């Protein structure tokens, strides 16, 4: 790790520690679990719309897993797909215990986005090695909240995401004539983020000017396997014609 990077990490840790010392703890309000729309519309499902509005996360997560190119995207779309199960489980019986399973997959998705940014815009090796530490930091923030009833680390990790619409949960529910609540709209709005990211992955191709692409690494791995006689060289040439634009 370069000296500047070490100083940067040290400064970040110091800032976080100072923040934890000078700011009061943020307990989880129990009113958070009292959502505007608590109707059982069909099949006896409590909070029906808040439960079924998580389904788009599963669809987009599965599609994204098919298209993903790097480990960062894999972790992101795994988190997105898991939100469908975790959030649905929480909304069936909202309390602090079930809220853990709502926040954990969201944290995996959010922290993976940071790793993806590093991989694609800063340094691929650094970004790849940062995936597990970032995801672990998110998981620890949730564990800290459950043990000490303090949301400060979680707030730092999440950076107050998607706060405007759910904050107007009751207001939106009234505005729509008790048809849909702000929390349901938050689910649908948040699901649109991975939709656009999925479309981006479907449309883009690997840029030829990237210094080290994952495809290059795979190509080298296939070459080694090929030399051992497990695969034919013809398949190698055909499989990775997509990166031929780097030559010349």
Quick structural gist:
Keywords: Membrane, Signal, Transmembrane, Transmembrane helix. The protein is mainly α and 248 residues long.
Q: What brief labels describe this structure?
A:
248 residues; mainly alpha; 12 helices; 0% strand; disordered C terminus; signal; transmembrane; membrane; transmembrane helix
Task: Spell out the blueprint of helices and strands.
Layout: H1 3-22, H2 48-52, H3 55-67, H4 71-92, H5 96-121, H6 124-148, H7 152-158, H8 164-167, H9 169-175, H10 182-203, H11 214-227, H12 233-239
Helix pairs in contact: 3-4, 3-10, 4-5, 5-6, 6-7
Task: Walk me through the structure.
This protein is mostly helical and 248 residues long. The chain folds into 2 domains: 32-204; 206-248, no CATH class. Helices cover 69% and strands 0% of the residues. The chain has helices at residues 3-22, 48-52, 55-67, 71-92, 96-121, 124-148, 152-158, 164-167, 169-175, 182-203, 214-227, 233-239. Helix 3 (55-67) packs antiparallel against helix 4 (71-92). The longest helix has 26 residues, at 96-121. The chain is globular, with a radius of gyration of 22 Å. The two termini are 32 Å apart. Mean pLDDT is 75; it is low at 208-248. Keywords: Membrane, Signal, Transmembrane, Transmembrane helix. The chain crosses the membrane at residues 51-68, 75-92, 104-119, 131-148, 154-173. Residues 1-27 form the signal peptide.
| Shape label | globular
Structural class by helix and strand composition: mainly alpha
Termini, distance in Å? 32 Å
Average pLDDT level: 75
The rounded Rg comes to: 22 Å
Strand-and-helix sequence, N→C?
HHHHHHHHHHHH
Percent strand equals under 5%
How many E strands? 0
As a percent range, the share of helical residues equals: 55-70%
Tally of separate helices: 12
